[in-house]
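Subject: Cell division ATP-binding protein FtsE structure
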Amino acid sequence: MINFENISKFYNGDPALDSINLSVSAGEFISIVGQSGAGKTTLIKLILAEEKPTSGSVFFDSVDIHSLKNNAITKMRRRMGVIFQDFRLLPRKTVYENIAFAMETAGKTDEEIETDVPYILDLVDIKSKALLFPHQLSGGEKQRLAIARAIINQPEVIIADEPTGNLDPINTNEVIQILKKINDLGTTVILTTHNPRIIDSLKKRVVSMEKGKIISDNEKGKYKI
């Protein structure tokens, strides 16, 4: 589904990514681990076409992402849902409205919104918070709302960039369980983290990075950090 072929990315002459070759299959749950500065976020930015590689190619369903025009990039991004560490919620909209807005921008009808929003809120266990604003939510509830917004338009891929970085262990576990549930429903999940407890609990494929290089790629959840 997603393929990195001989990818390097330099900033001011310094390598953020160095000769990366990586494939992610449809329906896979893959964790990308490494300390700050390892290259995880740069990898994500290349998938989303927020950055261009210095050399090499990134393919999404055999299409070179960085050869696409702006309109085609927008369409491609609609096939992906992104979850960030800092939530990026709309502060002046309620929980319900945050998700409804994501559907509106994707061209969904009022009927679809009325049907799908309650279902997704129930899936992430914040249905009772529908009329609250983000500032009234706990950190874990904010992240569950961010997940709901990311999956509401049924993307093929979920990219979760350090989604538990600001959460306590209980909320971290709840968020990871939701991501596993999403993956069980057939969605590809790409998770970046530097938390070894998460990796231990998942027992899924782990790609370890260090200084812009892949230092291990293990199907059984073993890793190097």
